[in-house]
Write the structure tokens for this entry.
Amino acid sequence: MARNYSPHLDKLSEKEKKKYRRREYVPGLIIWATFIGSIVLSFVKPLWVIYFIILFCLYWVLRLFYFVFYSIYSAYVFNREIKIDWQQKRQELPNWQDYYHLFVLPTYNESFEVVDSTLQGILKSGYPTDKIIIAISWEERAKPVYDEVEPKIRAKYGDKFYKLLTTLHPDGLEGELKGCGANANWLGWKSKELIDELGIAYEKIITSYFDIDTIIHPKYLDYLTYRYITHPNPTRSSFQPAVLYNNNIWDAPVWMRITAFSTVFWLLAELMRPDRLYTFSSHAMSFKALVDVGFWEKDIVTDDSRIFLQCFIHYNGDYEVTPLYIPVSMDTVMADKGPWDGLKSLYKQQRRWGWGVEHFPYMLYHFRKKKDLIPFKTRIKYIWNLGEGMYSWATAPILLFVIGRLPLYVAGPQVKATVIAQNAPFVLETLMTIGMVGILVSAVLSMRLLPRRPKQQPKYKWLVMFFQWVLLPINVVVFGAIPAAEAQTRLMLGKYLGFFVTPKKR
């Protein structure tokens, strides 16, 4: 659902609103200048575009090898870390019992089964439950779900943890955008009230902010505890686990599976470069940092990654993300109303993720105010990483698979007679063939990350899971570039997105 205002702009003076708004134009203007310029120049200066496409394709092949290398290495570290006895390492720490885990779990209309599986996963970890606080918040606009699910959760888990906090987030509070961030903000302040009553120091509370369908690995809490306590400055770092979309992967349609695994591989590669890493989806951090910045912002869509920038700016650049190589598992997109409804939900989910481009004007605005406190190179690095990533997401697949051959078709006889034009098809085919290495690696890695095949799934489904990757080029255009381009275009035009709740079905 779209909205025709930006809550962030409401907080600013008229002069500052105009400045902020101009920054929102930038990503959309750049991608449309690329698309329109490539098409127009294909007719006017086709040779220029041929050179550009070849160089761009070469760049992407090099970037693909970078991606493949870090994905493989990350998967190696992932498998190595899982084998370590983190419970023993945690117990060797003399002060581990001083720390508590808080799980912040905002939910909307998810069923009892979804919430129950998340809490069961926490119990099955074997971590001492007297050190675990659970906080769950439902939405008032879905009160019938709350009335049905909350009593069951309280009856089953009320005495299983140190504390179980359940609350109902009121609808229509001032300054809020209907979405997960507003619910999380409400739940954060409610958790603070509870923690203040308990008298626990904020620095001693490790907060996991999870999508409600997140199921932890049995070693997650031991691993996170160890990494948090041994970190030189844990209140100045978020902790990002590897995210797998494995809960219902065997039941999900092919397009959902490819998109889910593509996201997993992207995050695995990013985990090896913590200097580029933002928080994404389910993550952990110090409760003190959350209190310092006023919890998750309640008027944006992408609150999961914005919280990193809130802390980064608040602490003048002295904030980082620490990768965790123990996974959490979540649901991939599935819908109740048939395949077409599922595809629409997948597209909307990707568009919502693409709405992370709203961080671009946010960084430009706040970095300018902190120019004397955050080093110039650091500011440029974060602006470049986000801007280039969002630009490539929206443009690269369309340039490579859709627009790339246009100048070869429309060029005149003189251009077609040149050596570069005659060899361009061969060069592009060769680069694309080399690029198939990435698809093969994705197929192999996906097989290693799959959970055990359910008994109701036929054995030949393994082959389907492997050969589904031939559809990747279509997938990255339809469920990658197009929703990302739409998100950036909407930001440019001021057609702001609301929060889309991804359907969760098992």
The first strand starts at residue 2 and ends at 3. The beta strands are 2-3, 100-106, 132-139, 163-169, 205-209, 215-216, 237-244, 283-286, 320-329, 496-497. The chain has two domains: 2-70+381-497, 96-355.
